[in-house]
Amino acid sequence: MKLLSDKIVAVVLACAVVILVVFAVVQTNWTNKFIRLSEAQREASLRTRVSIARSALAPILQRYAAGIIGKSEACAQASALLSQMTYDDGESRNYFFLNAMDGTVLVRPYRPLDVGKKLLDEPNSIGQYPMRLVLQSVREHPEGSFVRYVFPRPPSQEEEEKLSYVIYVPELDAALGTGTYVEDATVQQLALLRRSYLLAFLLASLLAVPFGLFLLVVRKRNAALVEEMSKRRTAIEAMEQSRTRFQTIFETVNDAILILDPGTLRIKEANASAQRMFGYSGEEMARLAGGELLAASPDDGEEGAVPLERTREHGPQTYESRCRGRDGGSFWVEISTRMARLDGEDAILAAVRDVSERRKAEEALRESEAKFRSLFENMAEGVALHEFLYDADARALDYRILEVNAAFETQTGLVRENVVGQLASDCYGGEVPPFIDEYAYVASTGNPLVFDAFFPPLDRHFHVSVISPKKGFFATVFTDVTQEKISEQHLKESLHEKEVLLKEVHHRVKNNLQIISSLLKLQMLSSGPEAQPPLRESANRIATMALVHEHIYQSPSLSSIQLRSYVAKLASHLLRSFAGDKRIESVVDIPEMIISVDKAVPLGLVLNEVITNSVQHGFAGRNDGRIAILGELKNDVLDVRISDDGVGLPEGFSLEGATSLGLQLVVNLARQLDAALEVASDQGTVFSLSVPL
Fold first, then answer.
1. Last residue of a domain, one of 503, 532, 558
2. What are 286-302's pLDDT values in tens digits?
3. Which of 189, 217, 385, 691 is deepest in the core (most CB within 10 A)?
4. Sign of the dihedral defined by the CA atoms of residues 407, 409, 410, 411, in that order
């Protein structure tokens, strides 16, 4: 019996050991499952909240993608929206954050001073760089990932471990996320849970055999209960997420949202935008009827209720109406209504958008169009709008007349009704439309073009300006200049006649001067030796002036001559006249330039006197010599230098004391030219003249 008892005890102990081992394994598994379930629930909660925030940003991102707003405005609206979206995570109020990918903080509600700063290089107390960790996680997993780091908890600012979930928002090039703090209390609770399980294990070990079957039954019932609770929790979370998403959108959209009772049309709820738009508080809104609020005046309440009743009976409605605010001011709105099921009850959902600015813009556009139409119709110039027609190879074939103004009819003689909508080739005749190459260039490149042309179909001259408002289209602004062209041609003919006459006058003056020069030379042949030099000098002076007139009638211009050729001919003429048997070389280096007759005559006379003086007096006792005439143009001043390699000037010579007629002429002509005159004698004679032009 004892053996039996010992055997029974051994069996019981063995069973207890087996139960202990099995319980330890099960207990460890359950603990790990509990920890994983807690973490999974926490991560699922973070994912859900970030998804809600991303959904709330969708309208802003859509307006940005459509080009309605710019990126800076989209960032500003997103920041304003996220700053208002705080939530209760069970321990404290929590928030969403938004960071640009360059490390700039865009949204951080509990640390507003950080907004706008780049915090890539800001470490925490354990040497981590939270901003870098967040951005690195987004770059590696743009669809969403978790990241752990130590971060100050508001409002105490004590650093604690934080688990965040972040996603990439490509439209804003930013990281959107939220997080929760992993408190020590959670770890302590888990430790307490393990100790309680251990104590329960010890107790269960003592009662394993009698309560084994009971525990199995309880476990099965608990499993069923946990499954049922899990289903209910999932359903509740789904409803809460839907409600949160709706509430977030309801409170953050820019449009006014009204929820109305379909029976009484009373306002049950109004979002913040509606309160701002109409100037009423939420409590005041609840005392108003929808038709009364959505009418231009209190007397129009019944009229304002008609579309709401139509929504109830016929479905969604969209219309524009004038509404009034609390201050009595009226404004235009666009109202979209539809039936909805909210919290198990039917309701009319009305979205109200202020379109006052749009209607003002439309009115301004209509006024602008009217002004431009009036300008278009009353312009003195003819205006025509055209559209090009192209073949399969994008070659311009013809162009169609789209619109013309009244001046078009006046200047072309064509009737608007007969040309608008017609092809140019049909209106003007001919296989090739007029000026198609010029017009095609403007329509394809957008570069404007201005030209004068004779228009054979109308037998008229036009001044035409061509512009292209967009590719494939062009507009012509033209003026009939036929009379101007005729007058211009008459003027050209008259001017040509006068030019011929003036050239003939210069030719006759030159001939008369040459006759006078020849008479002086004949007089010189019959005069004595003392009279010949003065007569020769006078003849050369006259020849110098005659040479100017010769260049004038040979020149395209009647008021100026080519200086270089004039000086070269003048020097050659003087050397032939005075050099005789002497071999005197002349070097002329004058710039190619045009000089007026007023400057050419006195300058030619100065050159005549100086060259004559060099030939007659500079080479006494010599049969050869060199005269150089050099010129340089600097800053509208012509510097002329006449030099020879002769005997030079007598000692003590000065221009002021010169008594000869030639040198006195040089001084007076220099004054006439307003020129600076200098004389030097260094291995010959040098006359320098600076003539302002």
1. 558
2. 887 777 777 655 554 45
3. 691
4. positive
SS3 per-residue string spanning 526-557: CCCCCCHHHHHHHHHHHHHHHHHHHHHHHCCC
DSSP notation for 664-678: HHHHHHHHHTT-EEE
Tokens of 79: 């920041």
- Domain of residue 340, CATH code: 3.30.450.20
Q: Which residues, other chains included, contact 370 with Cβ-Cβ below 8 Å and sequence gap of 6+?
A: none
The dihedral of CA 420, 426, 429, 432: what is its sign? Answer: positive
CB-neighbour burial class of residue 293 (10 A; exposed 0-12, middle 13-18, buried 19+)? buried
Residue where a domain terminates, one of 513, 534, 558: 558
- Distant-in-sequence, close-in-space partners of 271: CB < 8 Å, separation ≥ 6: 250, 251, 253, 256, 257
234 vs 688, higher pLDDT: 688
Query: What is the DSSP secondary structure assignment for residue 31, as one 8-state letter?
Result: H
Find tokens 């300058």 and name the residue. Answer: 603
* Non-local CB neighbours of 43 within 8 Å, separated by 6+ positions: 146, 163, 165
Residues 337 and 385 in one domain: no
Contact 99, 131 (CB under 8 A): yes
Sign of CA dihedral 92, 98, 103, 106: negative
DSSP character at residue 95:
-
Is residue 105 assigned to a domain?
yes
Q: Does a structural domain hold residue 93?
A: yes
Backbone angles phi, psi at 312, to 5 degrees: -65, -35
Q: Which residue has the higher pLDDT, 446 or 573?
A: 446
Helices (H), strands (E): how many in the chain?
19, 24
Phi and psi at 576, nearest 5°, equal: -65, -35
pLDDT of residue 510: 58
Query: pLDDT digit string (tens) for 466-491?
Result: 999 999 999 999 988 888 888 777 77
Q: Could you tell me if 179 and 42 lie in one domain?
A: yes
Does an H or E element contain 390, and which?
strand 382-390
Give the mean model confidence (pLDDT) for residues 350-373: 85
Q: What is the arithmetic mean of pLDDT over 346-366? A: 87
**492 and 469 in a common domain:** no
Asked if residue 617 and residue 511 are part of one domain, the reply reads no
Q: Which two tokens stand for residue 81?
A: 């929206």
Asked whether residue 594 falls in the same domain as residue 545, the answer is no
Q: Within this chain, do residues 205 and 89 fall inside the same structural domain, yes or no?
A: yes
User: Is residue 637 situated within a structural domain?
Assistant: yes
- What pLDDT score does 270 carry? 87
Q: DSSP character for 449?
A: E
- For residue 113, what is the DSSP state? G
Cα distance between residue 266 and residue 665, in whole Å = 113
Q: Residue 216 falls within a domain, yes or no?
A: yes
pLDDT at 28: 66
Q: How many domains does the chain have?
A: 5
Q: Within this chain, do residues 466 and 554 fall inside the same structural domain, yes or no? A: no
Taking 60 as the threshold, does the pLDDT of residue 68 lie above it? yes
What value does the mean pLDDT take over residues 219-242?
76
Q: What is the pLDDT of residue 448?
A: 93
CB 616 within 8 A of CB 651: no
Burial pattern 528-559, b for ≥16 Cβ within 10 A else e, equals eeeeeeebbbbbbbbbbbbbbbbbbbebeeee
Out of 216-220, 281-285, 537-541, the most confident range is 281-285
Reported residue count of the chain is 693
Q: For residue 373, which phi and psi values (nearest 5 degrees)?
A: -65, -40
* pLDDT tens string 247-272: 677 777 788 888 888 888 888 888 88
